[in-house]
From TrEMBL, chains A, B:
PROSITE patterns in the cross-refs: AA_TRANSFER_CLASS_5
Reported cofactor(s): pyridoxal 5'-phosphate
Biochemical pathway: Amino-acid biosynthesis; L-serine biosynthesis; L-serine from 3-phospho-D-glycerate: step 2/3
Main enzyme class: transferase
Statement: the UniProt record of this protein carries the keyword Transferase: yes
Aminotransferase class V domain: residues covered: 15-380
Entry keyword set: Amino-acid biosynthesis, Aminotransferase, Pyridoxal phosphate, Serine biosynthesis, Transferase
Organism, as annotated: Lodderomyces beijingensis
Similarity section: Belongs to the class-V pyridoxal-phosphate-dependent aminotransferase family. SerC subfamily.
Signal peptide interval: none
SUPFAM superfamilies, per the entry: PLP-dependent transferases
UniProt-listed Enzyme Commission number(s): 2.6.1.52
Catalytic activity: O-phospho-L-serine + 2-oxoglutarate = 3-phosphooxypyruvate + L-glutamate
Name used for this protein in its record: phosphoserine transaminase
Length: 392, 392
């Protein structure tokens, strides 16, 4: 195909699970910034990561996230490379270094395994030699439910943190209620992987010890991971103490205290990626903040699930508990794999793209992140109904 | 400043050390790709990292690197997040896992400490609990020389690899001759950090076990690190064996075999960053390959060092051994800090930008990477002479 020579585009209807659709005006501004940043002779990807304009980009992105998520003052916001998968490792290293400082002991790590991503995070903690255990594991139900935490196994002594994945992109489930004090002891921080639903809804940050999210769903392109961590959890045992306790050390690039001390530029931050985060968060604030986007997201999910439920004899939803259904990743199946493939193909021909389910799950997945318009979802909902009627 | 609304720009004369200047036509194409990739409805940052076009971008980038550097078939090329600093950790983890497989033992790591970056790599290996030692350390000379390897300390038994930093960005020195078989036992692979001089000159890849390079100097924007690793070094002991030997495991996102198995998309590769690498390497091939760019780089360095040497009573070059002077990062000082600052200020006013020395070294640093034109260097050389004459 010939490469395009314009920054204009028709508004796409794209439902990919990530990397995902971004607002066209954000991409246009970012494209200009790539050549010349704020009237400077060079672009945002070419300037020093410690220059004044770079610091201003990092600082505004942090400030916008603080505003949007109403982050309390006793939290630090910072950025790492490595994606969610890097975060699986970075969190366990850093939280165990804190636990060692607090108690002089090697801690354990608790995981609620409610889908493919929390399963991977759990596996990584074990692989790195930490004592990790699952308080819940819904694999036998194909992750079709998130059982209430009152039914989870107990938090063991010496537990350094509890990990949840707030929204499971592959399986299409999402927490409607996070573990509260009647389950979780006050000194055990809750850590949430919010890679696929950050900025999609209001969140009470004060209930978490840390929130981690890859950028490439609701906030930007791939290459940066966002961390919001309560300050007291950043107090860590020394390297020598950790070696004595046989606690694996974080690679230096992921050492939370060091990264924070250097305002996320200990090593070279992908500044262009951060510029996109800045523009996306700035736009969200201008459009009324999280309250507004949450309302639209609720409406989008209601329309799409409504269409699927209206054809309940045709479509099957693997997440059988309605309360656990994701408002970001709507996973469903037709009566056969052939019809699944036909659905994806016919939808694509109508301009409704990126609907193929994850290779491990099959079926159809419509990811309706912030940048997917109400109009796109309405078109998809109409197609959902029409396809069922035509093929029943 | 008002954000620009054009993709045109005057060719900048920018000498920053990294992130660094990139070719304008590459940035323009990348800007279009951001909105719409190859005529598709969505941009390169929005498509799935496992889609066909994504795989094509990754594959072409690998192929271009293979062509440009004449990489033998028994090497793998792949990409990680984490920058050079991530590489300091990733290399030691992975090379020790190989050494454990090969020998059943925990290996040692040898480092030639010839500047700020090799010092950091050495420090990281020790910090992570590995037995690392320095065969050379020129800190007492402020890294003003790279002594011949015939004068280095011996390679100890059980050494898993020897690390060199081929070009030290901060200090401005560069290897003219890498350790050969008369120094380095054949079974000890040479690992080179080439972050600031990759693609600037011909390299005999077959002499290295592995080459690592952050992208943000000669090849692209920050966010990807390039690895070229000899295939036999990818054979690693199992996690269980490593735990038994007390060898620290790599975080999963940096496990070389796993990343290779997934064609650099085990976790979400920053595809837009890879697209820029693709466009830069494609352009280099079209312009005659490494031989051509090496000639231009030699000429640029000769012009600039020539101008400095023509005013030898005014300028001081911290790298006193001419043979060890970097062709990428030209570090120099005027007779006083005040004049250094005046030099940077006056040059900036003439459109010669990004010349301030690294905060740890001071003085002036002109980074003349591939994208810095001969014309820019000639202008700088003229200014170097004029400034000395005006201020002597």
């Amino acid at each position: 195909m010939t490469p395009a020579r314009t920054l204009d585009r028709e508004e796409p209807s794209y439902f990919g699970a990530g990397p995902a659709l971004l607002p066209t005006d954000v991409l246009q501004q970012a494209a200009y910034d790539l050549l010349s940043y704020e009237g400077d002779a060079i672009g945002i990807g070419e300037i020093s990561h410690r220059s004044k304009p770079a610091t201003a980009v990092i600082d505004e992105t942090k400030k916008n996230l603080k505003t949007l998520l109403n982050v309390p003052d006793n939290y630090e916001i910072f950025f790492l490379q490595g994606g969610g998968t890097g975060g699986f490792s970075a969190i366990v290293y850093n939280m165990m270094a804190h636990y060692a400082k607090k108690t002089g002991k090697k801690g354990k790590a608790a995981y609620a395994v409610t889908g493919a991503w929390s399963a991977k995070a759990f596996e990584e903690a074990q692989r790195l030699g930490f004592d990790a255990y699952a308080v819940a594991n819904t694999k036998k139900d194909n992750y079709g439910d998130i059982p209430p935490y009152s039914e989870w196994g107990p938090i063991q002594e010496d537990t350094a943190y509890l990990w949840v994945c707030d929204n499971e992109t592959v399986n299409g489930n999402e927490f409607s209620d996070i573990p509260g004090p009647e389950y979780l002891p006050q000194d055990v921080p809750l850590i949430a992987d919010t890679s696929s639903n950050i900025l999609s809804k209001r969140v009470d940050v004060s209930k978490y010890g840390a929130i981690m999210a890859g950028a490439q769903k609701n906030i930007g392109i791939a290459g940066l991971t966002i961390y919001i961590v309560r300050k007291d959890l950043l107090d860590q045992a020394s390297d020598a103490e950790l070696r004595k306790l046989d606690v694996a050390l974080s690679p230096i690039a992921w050492s939370f205290p060091l990264v924070i001390k250097n305002n996320s530029a200990y090593n070279t931050i992908p500044l262009f990626t951060c510029e996109i985060l800045k523009l996306v968060t700035r736009k969200l604030i201008a459009e009324g903040g999280i309250e507004e986007i949450e309302k639209i997201n609720e409406r989008k999910a209601k329309i799409l699930y409504g269409a699927l439920e209206s054809q309940a004899s045709f479509y099957k939803l693997p997440v059988f508990n309605q309360n656990a259904r994701s408002r970001m990743n709507v996973v469903f199946k037709t009566p056969s794999e052939e019809l699944d493939a036909q659905f994806v193909k016919e939808a694509d021909a109508k301009g409704l793209k990126g609907l193929k389910g994850h290779r491990s799950v099959g079926g159809i997945r419509a990811s309706i992140y912030n940048a997917v318009s109400l109009q796109s979802v309405e078109q998809l909902a109409d197609f959902v109904v029409a396809f069922a009627k035509a093929n029943s």
